[in-house]
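Researcher: Here's the sequence for the chain we discussed earlier.
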Amino acid sequence: MTLDVFKGEVGHAYVCATKNRGHTAEELADMALNKIVFIGADVPDPIKEQALAYRENLRSVLVFYMRQAMLSERTTMKAEIMAEIKEN
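Model: Thanks. This is the structure I predict for it:
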């Protein structure tokens, strides 16, 4: 009987916790960016500057749409609560 042994790395685990509140759009955008954009320590300066500019632009877009999603969720919840009140 042959045993196959597989080795692998999972990577790094990051935990972002809050106390008595949810995450802000900015915090969520930063978490997403940490998964989307990685800039190595040994990257040449011109490439690093371009990557940082791209990351900041992407952060602005993510924050905007996450705020829109939060507002949309509030609108949906308000409509559901109002519909529930009308039924009773």
